[in-house]
Design a protein that fits this description.
The chain is an alpha+beta fold. The chain contains 3 helices and 7 strands, in the order E-H-H-E-E-E-E-E-H-E. The radius of gyration is 17 Å and the shape is globular.
């Protein structure tokens, strides 16, 4: 399990003086990018291969308040990956310094080609690196259908 520690700053709080919803998202995003960078998915490689990560959804479950003045650790575990690397599922957990579980998030995303703006599989050099990383208990190979399990469609105003 990958862990990253954060200080809860004044700007991370909401009107109730606990961690704002947007701060959870920012902490998870920072954790994901730190993890990916450490494993060969830094900006240089993303530019080289013209790819970028996109989030399909993030489902949050809040268990305890996160208050200022207490550091928080955010975990990342790989729960799923498609055979071509196009789709990925990560789970994040938030913990206080005593290891108490504060929140959980299930997120799914994919990779887009930044030129065509369409979903794409990973280049072999990156895919082989991703496949060698530690997987979480219950890891599964993802299919396109897994990305549609909540099947929400846009409903334009027009």
């Amino acid at each position: 399990m990958y862990l990253k520690e954060f200080e809860v700053r004044w700007s991370d709080l909401d009107a109730n003086r606990h961690l704002a919803n947007s701060a959870y998202i920012n902490f998870m995003s920072h954790t994901r990018m730190a993890y990916l960078t450490e494993h060969g998915f830094g900006h240089k490689n993303m530019v080289k291969y013209h790819i970028g990560p996109v989030v399909f959804y993030e489902h949050m479950y809040y268990f305890r308040e996160i208050l200022p003045g207490v550091p928080v650790r955010v975990s990342l575990e790989i729960k799923g990956l498609s055979p071509d690397g196009m789709f990925f599922e990560f789970h994040h957990n938030f913990y206080d310094p005593k290891g108490r579980h504060l929140a959980h998030c299930e997120m799914m995303g994919g990779w887009i080609d930044l030129e065509s703006r369409k979903l794409t599989g990973l280049p072999e050099a990156l895919l082989s690196g991703f496949e060698s990383l530690e997987k979480a208990e219950g890891f599964r190979h993802l299919t396109r259908e897994d990305t549609r399990k909540h099947f929400k469609r846009p409903n334009d105003l027009a």
